[in-house]
Design goal:
Layout lengths: L8 E5 L5 H17 L3 H8 L9 E2 L5 H9 L7 E2 H9 L10 E6 L3 E4 L2 E5 L1 E4 L3 E5 L4 H4 L10 H6 L1 H17 L13 H6 L14 H7 L6 H10 L4
Helix pairs in contact: 1-7, 3-4
Bound molecules: zinc ion (2 copies).
The site of one zinc ion (ZN) has 3 residues, from helix 7.
Length: about 230
């Protein structure tokens, strides 16, 4: 089988991002690559040890871009998500190597210059995504000595499930699922229509009930087929 669009995946994290959140993001990437049928190909191309999936951590510091997204925010206490996405994408100081960037931030996000809508993330087809774990941060970062839960219990908690599904959703957008082309100031209904209508990680929003339903099999059959197609050379 001939694949294409296989590019290294770089995970960029805002300072202060917890290890648990980062491991959830890694798990989301692995799950999506596996679902897309290309995990072995990634392993062959980018990792020396089978089963040891380490995505590129880079010395590239997203901090100046995060500051810019804070300055360009139109909602107090939020970062401008699209500003951040494009600012990192267009950074001329980085190598010209093709890649997918996944940026994890701790601050809340709003959508873009003309929309104050709060979002968990944004994803751009064939390039990358920005994801926030601001809503789940408290639950994901146990305070020393004040939390009896083990790391695994935290991994399984509803908050890390939310971050896992949110990251998978944005990866779905990167890999060609439902790229948004509707109005810039979309209503809930616009966004709902622009996403998968099934019980699926590509549904436009999540609640706890949905998260629990899709945890075992996040992509519906239609999205799964499209996801595989994205990487298959025609
Ligand atoms: Zn979406
Ligand atoms: Zn779907």
């Amino acid at each position: 089988m001939a694949f294409y669009k296989i590019k290294p995946i770089t995970v960029l994290s805002q300072k202060g991002t917890g290890q648990l959140a980062q491991s959830v993001v890694d798990r989301a990437i692995i799950t999506v690559l596996y679902a897309a049928g290309i995990l072995e190909e990634y392993d062959r191309l980018f990792n020396s040890t089978v089963g040891n999936y380490v995505f590129q951590k880079t010395n590239f510091n997203p901090r100046p871009h995060i500051s810019k997204a804070r300055r360009e925010s139109i909602v107090a206490g939020h970062l401008n998500a699209s500003s951040l996405l494009y600012s990192i994408k267009d950074d001329a100081s980085r190598s010209k190597e093709e890649r997918y960037d996944v940026t994890l931030v701790t601050e809340p996000l709003h959508w873009h210059n003309d929309s104050s809508r709060s979002v968990g993330g944004v994803g751009l087809e064939n390039y990358g995504a920005v994801v926030t774990y601001s809503e789940v941060k408290q639950l994901l970062r146990p305070v020393n000595g004040e939390d009896n839960r083990t790391a695994e219990e935290n991994e399984d908690s509803i908050s890390s499930l939310y971050l896992l599904m949110l990251t998978m959703h944005e990866l779905g957008h990167i890999f060609g699922l439902f790229p948004y082309s509707g109005p810039a100031n979309a209503s809930d209904e616009d966004l709902k229509q622009a996403h998968c209508q099934n019980e699926c990680v590509m549904y436009w929003t999540f609640n706890e009930e949905m998260l629990k339903k899709i945890r075992g099999w996040p992509f519906c059959p239609s999205c799964l087929a499209k996801l595989k197609e994205f990487f298959l050379k025609p």
